[in-house]
Automatic annotation (TrEMBL):
One of its GO terms (molecular function) is RNA binding. This is Ribosome assembly factor mrt4. Residues 227-246 are annotated as: Disordered. Belongs to the universal ribosomal protein uL10 family. The lineage of its organism: Eukaryota, Metazoa, Ecdysozoa, Arthropoda, Hexapoda.
Amino acid sequence: MPKSKRDKKISLTKTDRKGLVLKQRIMEDVKKCVDEYRHIFLISVQNTRNTKLLELRAEWKDSKLFFGKLRIIALGLGKSKETEIAEGIHKLANAMKNHSMNGQCGLLFTNRPKKQVIEWAEEYEELEYARSGFVTPETVELPEGPLPQFQHSMEPQLRQLGMPTSLQKGVITLIKPFKVCQMGDTLTPEQAQILKLLDKPLAVFKLILLGVYTKKHGFKKLTVTDDTNENEDEDKEEMDVENNDT
């Protein structure tokens, strides 16, 4: 009887016992998910927020999302033909490693139809407050005059953030026009805080599908606009797996 790829032992070195147990648990979870779910999507996350990830996990409670610990996840999948736990899955592990260098990414294990997942990802986005280091997509300027949305007690805080304010008859007032940020600026902590106080979200929390793995077809890089037109019956898809080797 041929030996299953899942039975391969993987060595974890340079770690204490507590860390070793955690890593082994993650790898076992990954192996279990490979068996349990039909599709594994490689996803990139723009403007990650922990609260949004929690909401996603609740919305996709019939599926499994993995973020973080990518090196351990890749090790669990197998990074070569010799160590992979399923046919061709090392290509997913290597693609995940490559994309993680350019930003946060993760894996979505699901049994939902591929077309449904792609259409959902295309439509899903949530506005979020930008953080320090974010490159602004627009210019935000405030005219001279009162700022009635703020309580008078906030005037020292706004002035400390760099806004030219004064308290006039109990109302915080800009004594001259103020440019919060210019399109293309990299936000400072002060600018990010001002935008949040102004209730001006500029960032978009969004998931980008980078690729998908199935046991039948292996790993395929995704171009979302192309794949939304594919037949939902995946048995009819023709995937050139070798051309997507990383």
